[in-house]
Specification:
The complex is a heterodimer of chains A (about 400) and B (about 130). Chain A is about 15% helix and about 30% strand. Chain A is of the alpha+beta class and about 400 residues long. In chain A, the strands form five sheets. In chain A, strands 1, 2, 3, 6, 9, 15, 16, 17, 18 and 19 form a ten-stranded mixed beta sheet that branches. In chain A, strands 21-20-10-13-23-22 form a six-stranded mixed beta sheet. Chain A has a four-stranded antiparallel beta sheet with strand order 5-4-7-8. The chains are: A alpha+beta (about 400), B alpha+beta (about 130).
Chain lengths: ~400, ~130
């Protein structure tokens, strides 16, 4: 029907017809798939949700005398430094280490937690705010310095880019708590005796649910990442494309994931937000938008999927094991109504993804394409769609 | 009629069965919304008093005579619109559905009149956009 090159030619002449995925679903309902596919060139999708498997690569620049950093903290949050001398990786869920006598919000078993973590530091850097660096070096003939302290902003460091190992989950779960004590999870607080439920995928507007077999999205796909330009770098960690699928090809639970990369210096703190889940820890909320080229009618047919045609499993977090019991599947239409029924009992259900900001991402990406500032890319390689999902079981190992 | 008040007890008044006395002597029902009471500490109670208007006033006057501070100014939930990302996580823990998502726009809406200031939303908010103004 049309190629990416033809679409880009239209974009550069500002002639491309771009619809957000919600506008597309409405248009298909009004005029059908065939007519819509004739009229529309690009569909924009977006999501804004916590994506904890995210982090930033930073190159500080060399000091004089130089230092080979072995331990490092950014605003008190530890950053990984076991590679190039002044290369750092700041993970979104890293937490500040409380100083002696310092009060922390939580006192769970194990490590004390702080509210502020890597996600907040990344967000501050994106916003242009100053961040304290404290580094300890290993003395070598190349790098004689033992320690270094300074204040950085995104303008005083060489590289600052997000390199997120697992983003854009294709579908996820619904969390509930069938136990008798409150649980504090990565989905937020789950109250006992099935008192509330939380879902985290925005459903029919979510990027990967509109390209269920990843026929359009591949390695090298240019995307909206945190308000800047990013790219699909690889399959994500825990990528599980072999998840069971409905006849409409969408998975019934967590499935494909993508690793994303993008220059954080160009991002906007509106779309890169540090967050904190009580008694779980810090994370990062991220806005990601993916354009889908209308290459043929099938693209439109798949993007016409509705919330009522998408499902997620209801998972009981009161059993803290790898495989948790489920209460069956629920549709996103039910989830978005704010109430689901489990074992005859109505339960309030809240989202964790911001549907409002997810829409805004799709709208902003649409505006970029309409303005001719964002063109589409051909994937340089497909995302593998056959990957097994391996558990890690004990073999000759000891339990502490 | 109903009146929502915050009661602050001096240490020596903590032992007094206040809600019992309100019911028995003034025919006032005290629905406890929040309570923070422990032996030998200043106690705090947020109650919704319901009863006859004269008896309500008499009950409040009596409590004041017992050195219980009766305050009509209540903590209110405040949402920082610049910080809120409209994720809606708070709507699941709000017992009175004062916090809801608009079904069309999916923006967070807060109906102050429904809020009982239970504060469950405060620690739930992942971006710390919710606080009380007290």
């Amino acid at each position: 029907m049309r190629t990416i090159a033809e679409i880009n030619h239209k974009i550069s002449r500002r002639m491309a017809v771009v619809l957000t995925v919600e506008e597309l679903k409405a248009q298909v309902a009004a005029v059908g798939v065939t007519q819509t596919a004739k009229e529309v060139d690009v569909i924009t999708t977006g999501t804004f949700e916590p994506m904890e498997s995210s982090g930033a690569i930073i190159n500080l620049g060399h000091t004089d005398p130089p230092i080979k950093i072995r331990r490092c903290w950014l605003d008190g949050v530890p950053a990984y430094s076991g590679f190039g001398a002044v290369d750092l990786y700041l993970g979104a869920t890293g937490g500040t280490e409380p100083q002696d006598g310092e009060e922390t919000r939580d006192t769970p078993r194990g490590l004390a937690q702080s509210v502020r973590g890597g996600g907040h530091v990344i967000s501050d850097l994106v916003a242009g705010k100053p961040v304290q660096v404290r580094a300890i070096g290993q003395v070598t003939d190349c790098y004689p310095r033992t320690s270094f302290e300074t204040t950085i902003t995104k303008d005083t460091i060489n590289q600052f880019y997000l390199f997120n190992p697992r983003n854009l989950y294709q579908n996820f779960i619904v969390g509930v708590n069938g136990g008798d004590r409150p649980l504090f999870t990565y989905l937020g607080p789950l109250q006992p005796r099935l008192s509330n439920a939380v879902y985290s995928n925005p459903g029919a507007i979510s990027p990967l649910l509109n390209d269920p077999d990843l026929q359009l999205i591949g390695i090298g796909t240019r995307i909206f990442l945190g308000g800047g330009i990013g790219y699909v770098a690889w399959e994500g960690t825990q990528h599980f494309p072999l998840q069971k699928r409905l006849p409409n090809r969408t998975p019934i639970g967590p499935a494909a994931t993508l690793a994303l990369i993008g220059d954080a210096k160009q991002m906007d703190a509106r779309w890169v937000r540090g967050c904190y889940f009580k008694s779980y820890g810090p994370s990062l909320m991220l806005g990601v938008g993916v354009p889908l080229p209308v290459l043929n009618e099938e693209v439109v047919a798949l993007c016409a999927v509705q919330d009522k045609d998408l499902v997620a499993p209801i998972v009981d977090f009161s059993i803290p094991r790898r495989v948790r019991p489920t209460f069956g599947l629920v549709s996103y239409a039910q989830l978005k109504s704010g109430r689901i029924t489990i074992e005859g009992k109505p339960i309030r259900v809240a989202p964790l993804a911001s549907m409002f900001l997810s829409r805004q991402v799709a709208i902003e990406l649409k505006q970029w394409i309409e303005a001719g500032t964002f063109t589409l890319t051909e994937p340089v390689a497909p995302i593998p769609m056959e990957r097994s999902f391996l558990p890690q079981d004990r073999k000759n190992s000891f339990e502490f | 009629m109903k009146k929502r008040v915050t009661l602050t007890f001096p240490k020596r008044a903590v032992q007094m069965p206040v809600t019992y006395r309100l019911a028995k002597e003034f025919n006032v029902a005290a629905n406890i919304i929040r309570a923070q009471v422990a032996p030998n500490q200043i106690g705090k109670l947020v109650v919704e008093l319901s009863g006859d208007i004269d008896q309500l006033d008499a009950a409040i006057e009596w409590m004041r005579s017992q050195h219980i501070n009766v305050s009509h100014t209540l903590a209110e939930i405040v949402i920082d619109q610049d910080t809120c990302v409209d994720c809606g996580l708070c709507t699941g823990v709000c017992p009175t559905e004062a916090l809801t998502l608009d079904p069309q726009t999916f923006r967070l809406t807060f109906m102050r009149s429904r809020c009982i200031v239970c504060e469950q939303c405060i620690p739930t908010c992942p971006v710390q956009a919710i606080s009380t103004n007290l």
